[in-house]
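Researcher: Please translate sequence to structure tokens.
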Amino acid sequence: MKLRHPGRVVAVVLAAALALLVVRHERSQDTALNAPAASLAGFSVEYRVETRAGGTRTETRNVQVRRPFDGRDASFDPTLSLGNSAFVSNGRHLYSQTGTSALDYGERIGAPPGDYRLEAIAGDLVRLGLARARGTRTVAGRVCRVYRTGAPLGDPFKGATAKEYADLCVGKDGLLLAERWYLNGKLLRDTEATSVDTSVPGDAAFAPPVGDLTANPTSFGAVKELSLTKPPNTGLPYWTARRPPWGFALRSRARTITSSTTSGSPQVTDIAYVDTYQRGHDAITVTHRELSAAGAPPRGVEQVDAGALGAGQVTLTTSGAAIAFRAGKWVVTVQGPFDVAHLRFFAASLRRVG
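Model: Translation complete:
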């Protein structure tokens, strides 16, 4: 039999073969880098915190987390008239309370208060000279590894110096069990776990503050859910993972708006589009901000390449790694409770659409 259009047949066959190769390549992404280990679903840790500045003061700190979004980080100092203070994340809603005063920060997307993910980035901190491993301790009956870095938690990570350093003790499950912060050769703050419970806290732990709530004037957030099936109508290309690695799946796409009323009338201070990919109790966010408003990504602790997105600036935080890319008219930030290698690999799975 004579084919009427042999060239067309060859083209169809080649197209089918190419499609098969693309599918095989995408499937191979899941195994190109071993999947990050699943994290604890939740925990409660009580700490004794002793601060030595202008005298010694002792307080109790209680952290309760239900991953990926619920958290309560509360402290009580019996010597202060203000009493309890706490930050509470109930899903996407963030509140703070000091004594009888409570602030409503509105909605936002991110890690809950007190959910430190230090084990995930410990290797990166050591590799980049921002921390040194210094053996092990036993705290609250649990073995933890000590890492010496150059600043207390909450400050940017930096290398230790003779003038200032902090020893962090991190359990194999990633929980922070102790922190000792030294300044000018003196122990300034000593934080140590007194009890650890790795069961998941119930709803009551994340209840909003009782009583009147005042909208936080400096930063109030609002979140609007968007379609998962198409990119948002921004007039710009959008970066999304059609086949996210390691079993992650796109669970939420939203536009977030942050406003301030400090000038007397509401002023928008930030607009972002956030895709949230989840696998069990872990979440990776891909955030788009317009370059004209966000400015170029600040210089990070290192620069890594992520395929189509190009080179990105790495930041290490207590909640994991983040990589910010300048992608056309966007700044695209990929953030999650994992090390740099896994975040870079996830970022490389993103493709431009629209």
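Researcher: Any highlights?
Model: Residues 8-31 have pLDDT under 50 and may be disordered.
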